[in-house]
Automatic annotation (TrEMBL):
Pfam families: G6PD_C (PF02781), G6PD_N (PF00479). The active site is at 239 (proton acceptor). It catalyses: D-glucose 6-phosphate + NADP(+) = 6-phospho-D-glucono-1,5-lactone + NADPH + H(+). It comes from Candidatus Venteria ishoeyi. Residues 7-186 form the Glucose-6-phosphate dehydrogenase NAD-binding domain. Keywords: Carbohydrate metabolism, Glucose metabolism, NADP, Oxidoreductase. Residues 189-485 form the Glucose-6-phosphate dehydrogenase C-terminal domain. Substrate binds at residues 177, 181, 215, 234, 339. This is Glucose-6-phosphate 1-dehydrogenase. InterPro entries: G6P_DH, G6P_DH_C, G6P_DH_NAD-bd, NAD(P)-bd_dom_sf. It comes from the Bacteria. Pathway: Carbohydrate degradation; pentose phosphate pathway; D-ribulose 5-phosphate from D-glucose 6-phosphate (oxidative stage): step 1/3. GO terms for cellular component: cytosol. Its EC number is 1.1.1.49.
Amino acid sequence: MEPCTYVIFGATGNLSKIKLMPALYHLEVAGLLPEGTKIIASGRRAWTLEKLHQEARAMIRAKARNGLDEAVFARFQARLSYFQGDLSVADMYPALAALFASHSEYPGNVAFYMAIRPADFGTVVENLSTHQLLDETHGWRRVIIEKPFGYDLESAHALQQRLMRYLREEQIFRIDHYLGKGTVRNVQVFRFANVMLEPLWNRNYIDHVQITHSENLGVGSRADYYDGAGAMRDMIQSHLLQLLTLVAMEPPASMEAEALRNEKVKVLQSIRSIPSDAVHAQTYRAQYTSGRIQGEKTKAYLDEDNVPPCSVTETYAAMKLYIDNWRWAGVPFYLRTGKRMAENQSVVSICFKAPPKQFFRTSQLQKMRPNWVLLGIQPCAYLKLEMTVKEPGMEMHTRQTTLDANLREGDVPATDAYEDLLLDVIKGDQSLFLRYDEVEAAWRVVDPVLRVWAMERDYIPTYPAGSWGPEESRRLFEREDQNWRDSMNPATKN
Ligand code: BG6
């Protein structure tokens, strides 16, 4: 791998603090940063190099998996420099170009990480281009764009048009950090490295699929962004639809970036669009009120800092989707996400159909339970297969048992998604980044819903913090015996 210069715009902000700096440090620990790689942290604040080093130390100390290693940190620190500048001021760009021109230690391969306001992506890229900072004469130039890519279909399209004036698709790395999670990548391995389930992985055997992401945390200090976004844009348009593509895609021709992305985009394009008069039947939104999380009292969304008092932004969103292709026709996919929910959990739960004949029904009171495959993404990484077995004893009673594979050995902490993704940028591997047609197809799925919700601004249902969300969201299910899988305990749910 060739060395590069990582320029982080927005380096004094939250993303850099909690994700980027720790991820780059962990790459240093693993010896994966190519010799000569440099990191230019850029922000508006007047930090000296010493201040940057202090801040970086604090950021890393808070996140380092095995504590901060002084020798490794010394190597890491030697790569760091600070560039003060305001991205909205035109002078900043020639100054940055001059820095490159006058310091030969900065490798000519440059990755610009946009840890900045999404509204500024287009302008910053345009300015970089105007000042020849995207010129590839002395090495590659790549731009990493955080989500959200646009605010809706139209603005995503406008942003794309603007970027394409200055960049080729191979230079644009649209990040969805879910794709960098080891356990998310495991969905592909589970599906395509094991032959056992493939014959069952379709409409003939699968009743429905649920994809849940729930969080304990509230909106915290992010209301400025979140109140304009809401759960549908923040989680479903990006992370949950990406998870859905991995569960539903056809085997790709190879694991190369384009082959993979071709299959993922086909799934998104096959999702049946939701007409405006079906939005209520296929979606549900709500907002958290006060409640208790792990015994602690928590505020209502409307009482969080910077949330407008009459906000109807959803902090919970659920939707039912159909993928109109041969494999999945008629199988509902239920997606759900919420803040301030009972547990932190990301799980894909696949419910199989009931056996065609209930042979054992007369011998027991309860109906046979279906088989489930549960793919735990976080906090625990597991693969569980729930099956029915006979209980010991003379009577013909059955019960559920779970074949349980924990996917992480012992207490080995997971690597963070950003580590893989930041390294992939240096390698030029786009397989875990979004191609524009994927982003566009995902907006097409959620856009009709957002349009209806945008018109209904008078009222939003609520759910108490610390709960599993609003009970009424159950109405998305097609049958009475279906319900959200809230707990991984098979004894408590069907
Ligand atoms: C981010 C969202 O993209 O993903 C956040 O903006 C959300 O609102 C986060 O909390 C969830 O990511 P993770 O990795 O903590 O599951």
